[in-house]
Write a structure and sequence with these properties.
Rossmann fold, 10 helices, 13 strands, globular, binds NADPH dihydro-nicotinamide-adenine-dinucleotide phosphate, binds dtdp-4-keto-L-rhamnose
Length: 306
């Protein structure tokens, strides 16, 4: 199988290419930079075949994908800076990447009759109530520009293709790129205490674990919508921070606050980001390990790469 992966200079794409290499598949890595610009951790992705491609350029997407003619595209590239996406002067670019870029890829996948995986987010929902969101629920109501444009990307895939997987994930952490854990470790080293919201509830996703599931998926024809995060239960960002400091051996005091009390975010975020993952097991896929276990392996991975 030949698999084209976008967003390899980010968290998830990096681990997807490494998972493909581990399993003997031909992975072609892509991002917007002229050459691979992710972490130099001497893993396979640093040596993989690489194609620079701006997903917002339809001609470039058509030419690159047609030349490569992959069996599968795993589309991980996105604009992921949630607060910044709210800025009036950024919104056009955010939409061009998350919605337009995804449509460009979907249209070529249709022509080539190849499978497409689109990675989406808990932020397509409004977070009302406490019931976990099911993957086939259509009550979309994004609260922010990032979520709205990711939803537009989902629709571009589902309206144009039949051979697709739309996989919604949440609260992502991986070696290569920015995430909440890295932010909290930095804050923890310089502050005695930190305020963290305890009214937004979800479950983190470790890119290393998710990459395994995504490759399992593309080996099948079990198309459709899925939710995938680590197991281990639903938690708040406050709970997550407490466990991060505990496992990292930091003594920083974590103070629980409501989103209103925190007051520093530009973008509104869903309170209820609980994702129902039962469809994974129902369709024969192996769930991810617990987030507590994932966090411990991640802290070790970071230490080994320091
Ligand atoms: N991070 C999270 O918490 C979550 C992420 N997701 C989704 O998961 C997927 C993977 O996320 P993650 O790995 O964290 O993302 P990252 O932000 O780490 O990586 C995204 C990559 O896409 C690249 N990119 C941006 N614009 C373009 C473009 N025009 N053409 C080509 N590449 C481009 C970025 O490059 P550059 O940095 O130069 O802009 C970056 O390297 C995304 O679809 C995201 O929406 C879902 C839920 C949570
Ligand atoms: C840094 C910080 C954040 N927070 C809050 C802000 C926010 O509500 C929550 C998480 O902060 P972040 O900035 O990491 O959140 P955010 O960037 O919104 O994370 C989201 O990213 C996108 C890409 C997704 O798709 C989502 O699944 C989710 O992972 O924690 C605190 O309460 N205290 C703090 O010190």
């Amino acid at each position: 199988m030949k698999i084209f992966v976008t967003g390899v200079a980010g968290q998830l794409g990096h681990d997807v290419i490494n998972e493909l290499a581990k399993r003997g598949y031909e992975g072609i890595a892509s991002d917007i930079a002229p050459t691979y610009s992710g972490i130099q951790d001497s893993s396979e992705v640093t040596q993989a075949a690489y194609r620079s491609m701006d997903i917002t350029n339809p001609k470039a997407v058509e030419a690159t994908l047609t030349e490569i003619n992959p069996d599968v595209v795993i589309h991980c590239a996105a604009w992921t800076a949630v607060d910044l996406a709210e800025d009036e002067d950024k919104q056009e670019k955010v939409r061009a990447i998350n919605a337009g870029g995804t449509k460009n890829i979907a249209l070529v996948c249709k022509k080539l009759n190849c499978k497409m995986v689109y990675i989406s987010t808990d932020y397509v929902f409004d977070g009302q109530g406490t019931k976990p969101w099911e993957p086939d629920c259509k009550d979309y109501k994004p609260l922010n520009v990032y979520g709205q444009t990711k939803l537009e990307g989902e629709l571009a895939v589902s309206e144009n293709l039949e051979k697709y997987f739309i996989v919604r994930i949440a609260w992502v952490f991986g070696l290569n790129g920015k995430n909440f854990i890295k932010t909290m470790l930095n804050v923890g080293k310089t502050h005695d205490s930190v305020r963290v919201v305890n009214d937004q509830v979800g479950t983190p996703t470790y890119t290393y674990d998710l990459a395994r599931l995504l490759v399992d998926m593309v080996e099948t024809e079990k198309y459709g919508y899925y939710h995938a995060t680590n197991e281990g239960g639903y938690i708040s960002w406050f709970d997550f921070t407490q466990e991060i400091y505990k496992q990292a051996g930091l003594k920083t005091n974590v103070l629980p606050v409501t989103t209103a009390e925190y007051g520093l975010s530009k973008a509104a975020r869903p309170f209820n980001s609980r994702l129902d993952k039962s469809k994974l097991v129902a369709n024969g896929f192996k769930p991810l390990p617990t987030w507590q276990d994932a966090l411990s392996r991640y802290l070790k991975e970071m230490q080994d790469n320091a």
